[in-house]
């Protein structure tokens, strides 16, 4: 073995130790949620932060992390050093100990999860949403819900989003995220929380546009799964996704006008692409089951995790009653899932207008 090989081997051996010795940020941060994405986020944050308080619902996750450094229910391949986090099933205690709260629960369970908190327990904290959905009980975006229900000032709200599957974070694949907030300082601070050797974070002030785009892309990914289940190929799916992007751009720009928005950025287009194509996409999988002929209820029973697109369809449909923006793809998928419309004929019908 030559000297260069010896040096390379030594670097590989020492690099993890060097990374652990770097000075970590001393912000007090809470993570709310125990699923795959929450586990991936805790993995990222544990490289950068000294004080991480982690709320999970299940006692077995507390035991798994505390004793073995692994979440036994989700993303169990990830190792999280037990001394790097304080994990608990006591939501009030976890929130009280933090200045920044990162919410990572599925949107379908958000209202139920936060219900034990008094209305004034979040309004003095910085709240970061990593939820890609809408609160079904109130038909609101996460930001709107936090403002109306918990009186969180808009300048205290942020979003972390982008094309990012938890399974690839677990493997430390290079990933691009976006930290969005109307508060530039908050966006930049959160970007520092999430920046690692394998995660690059951009900042944006387009909180509302990025948030509604994350909701829409789940619907469109579900449609991609339906087409795949019906037997359509990649050539067609590429055209489908191009038309979804046009529809997304129209809806986002009409609902939240912003002359500086570029819908081709990774937080919009990139997230749409990865959710529509990836084998890790729950929404694509759910749609694929529908395309193969399963009923909605049967597909839900087969899914072990939440497909956000299912709830997003109904919420976007209800929200759009007030604005009446023409979004035929999203409305067609809503009709299939909630009104029992014929899958094959409806998906063929909208495809005739694709360009």
Give a verbal description of the structure.
The chain is globular. It folds into two domains: 22-205, Rossmann fold, CATH 3.40.50.720; 209-351, N-(1-d-carboxylethyl)-l-norvaline Dehydrogenase, domain 2, CATH 1.10.1040.10. It is α/β, with parallel strands linked by helices. It is built from 16 helices and ten strands. The longest helix has 24 residues, at 207-230. The chain has an eight-stranded mixed β-sheet, with helices on both faces. α2 (36-45) links the parallel β1 (25-32) and β2. Residues 1-21 have low confidence and may be disordered.
Question: Could you list some keywords that capture this structure?
Answer:
single chain, 355 residues, alpha/beta, Rossmann fold, N-(1-d-carboxylethyl)-l-norvaline Dehydrogenase, domain 2, 2 domains, eight-stranded mixed β-sheet, 16 helices, disordered N terminus
Q: Any idea what the shape is?
A: globular
Domain count = 2
CATH class of the largest domain: Alpha Beta
Tell me the name of the CATH homologous superfamily of the largest domain: NAD(P)-binding Rossmann-like Domain
**Secondary structure: number of strands:** 10
